[in-house]
Design brief:
3-stranded mixed beta sheet, alpha+beta, Porin, disordered N terminus, 60s Ribosomal Protein L30, Chain: A, 8-stranded antiparallel β-barrel
Length: 452
């Protein structure tokens, strides 16, 4: 048949873009529709689905071409498929289609190619057909609403069909081949539109043209042309897997990115508002702290004597100081001979571990008496550490300093104010006896106490 009219097929395809616009819903909230992330991988989506469909089979295709009968007839068809979504726009689909195909020579005018019309009609049982197809999503995103509600797709693949033609002639009806079904390779090329009914259910409308590698479909072989047939269908597609995950085919990555940016913007706005509020509180606190109404140099927050004249000198509380105050005479500290003897005893009894700054326990009693004296009379003490010349000068300097500091630490632990003790080390620089004898070296290893 040349230039035949495929009214049903074209009507189905023409209705697709209109339906795409008419069925676009308002965007769903994030609590209504599960969303996948941008870079989390396919494991966060449902990628497998199954579909069932039913429709019409016709022994002709929308692209035209030659056919062996003047009129084709609509007949039922049915199918099913399993689909694996590899990417947002690409899937592999295994299809099965079955049904019946019919045609006759009842049209007087047309593009049929049977000149003698010896074969009056045919009926072919499409027992089965199986194919593997690549499915490409052409449009899945509605940029106005950021919600994927419908998608256009095309498919192409290859498969094998098993069918059995029966032909009717003037002499009666007979099988085209008595040997059984005919198996032939075919190439399916299709297009369709899919609508998202829910997170796990889709409505699928499609049209597929099947190009056979032979001229046996209608039971009549005329010339070198090859038979073709088309399947127009409507069906349902069911997404498999965890329902909390979205379907990969419907995933709208720009919408997810937009929502994420909006959420981040809202969070940043909250944080910025909180920082502004904190800064306002801080500015108010600083202003309150800096306020000095009477100009006396003391903040109003701490000023216990407000409205003090600017010429008056004030204390830390903002209150005027007495104008004719005479400072009290300092108390004179008298150091007695008993005090000096007590210190000398401490010096005489002070011993350290050999080569170390650890004070031996036998020195504690005399040091305790020095601590008591300093606390009672509020005395100050200068400690000077010395060593003999055994060892390096640097080590001796360090050892003398550490021993003086050990005495200071002991007295401080007994309650003496550390600010009243000065500890200095002189090493071997100030001997009081010769270092050539053991007795002289022993005298040089000392800590001198000077009270005042």
């Amino acid at each position: 048949m040349k230039n035949f009219t495929l009214r049903w097929a074209f009507l189905l395809m023409a209705a697709s873009p209109l339906t795409l616009v008419a069925q676009t819903p308002e965007p769903a909230t994030s609590t209504q529709t599960p969303k996948g992330g941008l870079f989390g991988g396919s494991q966060q989506f449902r990628t497998f689905s199954i579909g069932v469909n039913g429709g019409v089979l016709i022994p002709a295709v929308a692209t035209g071409g030659s056919n062996d009968f003047t009129k084709w007839q609509l007949n039922y068809g049915y199918g099913a498929y399993v689909k694996w979504q590899l990417l947002h726009f690409l899937a592999l689909r295994g299809d099965f289609v079955g049904g019946k195909l019919k045609g006759d020579n009842s049209e007087k005018l047309g593009n049929g190619q049977n000149p003698n019309r010896a074969v009056e009609s045919f009926e072919t049982s499409l027992n089965w057909s199986g194919s593997l197809n690549a499915v490409f999503n052409l449009a899945t995103i509605n940029w106005l609403h950021r919600q994927s509600a419908a998608q256009l797709y095309v498919s192409v693949g290859g498969g094998l069909a098993g069918y059995k033609p029966t032909i009717t002639t003037a002499s009666g009806t007979r099988d085209y081949k008595s040997s059984g079904s005919i198996n032939e390779f075919f190439v399916p090329v299709g297009a369709g539109v899919k609508f998202k009914l829910s997170d796990f259910l889709n409505l699928d409308l499609g049209y597929t043209m099947h190009y056979l590698d032979g001229d046996n479909l209608d039971g009549f072989n005329y010339g070198s042309s090859k038979d073709k047939y088309a399947y127009g269908y409507a069906g349902l597609e069911f997404a498999l897997g965890d329902r909390t995950k979205p379907q990969l085919a419907w995933h709208n990555a720009p919408a997810v990115m937009y929502d994420d940016l909006v959420a981040q913007k809202d969070q940043l706005k909250l944080e910025l508002d909180a920082e502004k509020e904190n800064n306002a509180k801080l500015a108010a606190s600083v202003a309150k702290l800096q306020a000095d109404s009477d100009g006396d140099g003391v903040s109003d927050l701490f000023d216990k004597c407000p409205n003090t004249p600017a010429t008056d000198k004030v204390d830390g509380a903002g209150c005027p100081l007495p104008k004719d105050t005479v400072p009290p005479a300092p108390v004179k500290v008298i150091i007695t001979e008993d005090d000096r003897r007590l210190v000398r005893d401490a010096i005489a009894n002070l011993e350290f571990a050999t080569g170390k700054s650890d004070i031996l326990p036998k020195s504690f009693a005399s040091l305790d008496r020095v601590a008591d004296l300093m606390i009672r009379k509020n005395l100050s003490l200068k400690l000077a550490g010395h060593t003999d010349n055994v060892g390096t000068e640097a080590n001796n300097m360090r050892l003398s300093k550490n021993r003086a500091e050990s005495v200071k630490s002991y007295l401080t632990a007994k309650g003496v104010n550390p600010s009243r003790i000065e500890a200095t080390g002189y090493g071997e620089l100030q001997p009081i006896a010769t270092n050539k004898t053991a007795a002289g070296r022993q005298q040089n290893r000392r800590v001198e106490f000077t009270i005042f």
